[in-house]
Automatic annotation (TrEMBL):
Record-linked CDD domains: NT_Rel-Spo_like
Lineage: Bacteria, Pseudomonadati, Pseudomonadota, Gammaproteobacteria, Enterobacterales
Protein name per its UniProtKB record: (P)ppGpp synthetase
Domain RelA/SpoT stretches: 48-178
GO BP of this protein: guanosine tetraphosphate metabolic process
PANTHER family (alphabetical): GTP PYROPHOSPHATASE-RELATED, RELA_SPOT DOMAIN-CONTAINING PROTEIN
Record InterPro entries: NT_sf, RelA_SpoT
Length: 181
């Protein structure tokens, strides 16, 4: 079996683990917002998604990412997205992420910091965290989420979401180089 086939086999074996972890993260944040009576800041139902296997393979082996261990180094095999109306709503979700006893987190992308560096550039704007559970989590008889399993969390406004959806395939994953014409 070659490296790509091993990668695919490992992901297929762990899909239910990642899916369960993403759903648990989504539900925890959503429930915490409801407890704080802040769930009205959500403008689109939070979604959990597994990264498409072809996107994973491309990211791992064909985008010059130079991963030492692609399977372990890729942290967005599962992701959860929260869409709010205003940038002022983003810190509410950030606070929940940063104060959860369930995980440790890393702040992987903060567009607010990027905006301070390049104030005149309107580009992809989302806050990205990667959370990793601190303890194993038994979900069912067949599914146990190992400690340290990563889940990416994106937080963005409705306007940022619209821009990201329109530009994602044409800019982020563009295979052809833009023409000057």
């Amino acid at each position: 079996m070659n490296e790509v086939d091993e990668f695919i086999a490992a992901f297929k074996k762990e899909e239910d683990i990642y899916s369960s972890w993403g759903e648990l993260v989504r539900q925890y944040i959503k429930n915490t917002l409801a407890e704080k009576r802040m769930d009205s800041i959500l403008k689109i139902e939070p979604s959990c998604r597994l990264k498409d296997i072809s996107s994973l393979i491309e990211k791992a082996f064909y985008r010059s990412k130079n991963y030492e261990n692609p399977y372990n180094d890729i942290t967005d095999k599962v992701g959860v997205r929260f869409v709010v109306l205003l940038t002022d709503d983003i810190p509410v979700i950030k606070d929940i992420i940063e104060n959860s006893p369930l995980w440790e987190y890393s702040d992987d992308r903060d567009y607010i910091k990027e905006k301070e560096d390049k104030p005149y550039l309107f580009d992809y704007q989302s806050v990205h965290y990667v959370v990793r559970n601190l303890k194993c989590i038994p979900v069912s008889e067949n599914i146990i989420i190992p400690d340290g399993t990563p889940c990416e969390i994106q937080i963005r406004t409705l306007l940022q979401h619209a821009y990201a959806e329109v530009s994602h395939d044409s800019v982020y994953k563009c295979k052809a180089k833009p023409s000057s014409e």
